[in-house]
């Protein structure tokens, strides 16, 4: 289209040039010299001027109407524009005749075309998919794929790679004696019925298949020798346990290996179970969790934090019912076991010097640390739980005793009657020197965290009263021990920094905190006064770069 526009413009210039050369030049009319006349009546003068204008317009229209030169120019102009339209039409026909390949650069229009084509294909294939799905439910009578003699009564899709999809009753017991986690289906009257691993199919005297119970042992290898006797040892079922995997719950038995001569026996211990990725829920090993269920739950909590533990366990129970198994999964036991599993993983990473609360990009020299609190993370006093000490005490959240001691130390060295948190017309309740404990039967009123400009969690604490200045001061003191921090970002830096200087005068150990540079968060600075924003705002600090100071909110 751009090329066509250029060609049409060239044709237009040529047509105008041709008209200019072929049309004879009309000599300009000579202007009459004005004669000075004596002054007359103004009314007569205006009347004469109107008569002259009327005569002049009439003569001009008559000249245009009967001028042969003008008529010839109009005919030439119409002729040239007619040829121009012809050339443009030829150009359009040429452009439309060229086959332009479809765009494959991933544009939106191409994507919309692909989606439309996919919808049309799926709509066409929908009846075929429905009929094929109905046909898959019908199972023809087949022979056993293992012995090729008896009629098959069991179908196992997990055995398809071994080319043993359909099995008879005898071959099913032999094949699934060790493969207890295979989901089997019994063939009855041309339909499939899921059965648990503790159910076997036998054929009665009349040749009809019947269900019966069987014992399944956990597939844990036993030691080759447990004593020095030469007699053959026997492997028998031991105690009944439940195993929870990503496919649900299984009821199995632990194996026991014994010698009939010397009465020596062997049963799997905790280290034997952990060797094959079974996590015990208790020291008695009544419930075992496969590692895959813990890793799947951990990944799910990272990608979907709103997913609850109860919903995850309900999903596992539903998968058990679909496979013909029954039994519920205790949520409290699962939570305790999962916490212990995560703690062991953390200890292993700690031995390998993997630190999760250290930013690898800006440690140990950090440009900025942002500190802020959130009072929505509260907990009522009546739901404090057990009195057991936390297993991650002091790892990320500081110990409550240490925070309380520091708060008492700061409050003992600062007695100020001016507790105003007003900056201009805005009043910030997020920063005060003193605050009373809430009377709403709340134990922990919120949480305060410190992060770097890359969003890494560095340190945190529980606060049991409002957001007083002593809480960020404690985090600032902790961060001064871990890294070299240049800027300390807060929402109310204009009130906090003078307070810090007063406290440092009475507590010399806090003087290194004043060496950091104050930084007022960029977004919150818009609510402060203009003078405050210029003095404390992050955009006015030399060396801060594009630091925002709102990393906790982000």
Automatic annotation (TrEMBL):
Residue stretches making up the CxC3 like cysteine cluster domain: 223-321
Region (Disordered): 21-68
Domain of life: Eukaryota
Residue spans of biased composition, Basic and acidic residues class: 44-55
Biased composition (Basic residues): 28-38
Entry-linked CDD domains: Bbox1 (cd19757)
InterPro entries: CxC3-like (IPR040564), KDZ (IPR040521)
Membrane spanning stretches: none
Protein name as annotated: CxC3 like cysteine cluster domain-containing protein
Species in which this protein is naturally found: Dissostichus mawsoni
